[in-house]
Amino acid sequence: MTAKAQPLRPDPFELFESFPSATLSPWYGVRWLAPSAAEAERRLNLGVANYAPHLFLTPIERADLYGALQRTETIDLGELVAAGRQDEAVLIRTLLWLAKFGVIAIEGSETTPT
């Protein structure tokens, strides 16, 4: 048995082991969940969500993204990145932000499709 580094705090690896964690791959599917774009924006304008708007897509860029996501059931992350309309890091950061607030779902596996 190994000793815990800080006995007064839970082991973070044990505490967060149930949280889903993986490296995003181009084959992950992105699916729209929110009832509407207006509801998506309402969620993102909450104080807890809107803490650093400069790190994410602008509202106009998000509207374009919402349109693309609403036109199809699921779109591959790689397709969104390949469209090249936004900076890749900003797009991925925004997608993770949208997933956190239940606007989209990101689903898939790290392996290439067969």
Chain-wise SSE layout:
Blueprint: H1 12-15, E1 29-32, H2 37-44, H3 59-70, E2 75-76, H4 77-83, H5 88-100, E3 104-107
Antiparallel strand pairs: 1-2, 1-3
Low-confidence stretches: none
Instruction: Report how far apart the termini are.
Output: 42 Å
**Which structural category do the helix and sheet elements fall into?**
mainly alpha
Proportion of residues in helical segments: 25-40%
Number of separate helices: 5
- What characterizes the major β-sheet? 3 strands, antiparallel
Q: Trace the largest sheet across and list its strands.
A: 2-1-3
Quaternary arrangement of the chains shown? single chain
Q: Could you tell me the radius of gyration in angstroms?
A: 17 Å
Mean pLDDT: 85
> What's the shape?
globular
Q: How many separate domains make up the residues?
A: 1
* Strand percent estimate: 5-15%
The number of strands is 3
Order of helices and strands: HEHHEHHE
Model description:
The protein has helices spanning 12-15, 37-44, 59-70, 77-83, 88-100, and strands at residues 29-32, 75-76, 104-107. It is mainly alpha-helical and 114 residues long. The chain has one domain (24-107). A 3-stranded antiparallel sheet has the order 2-1-3. The model has no long low-confidence stretch (mean pLDDT 85).
Give a quick precis of the structure.
The chain is mostly helical. The chain has five helices and three strands.
Descriptive keywords:
114 residues; three-stranded antiparallel β-sheet; 5 helices; globular
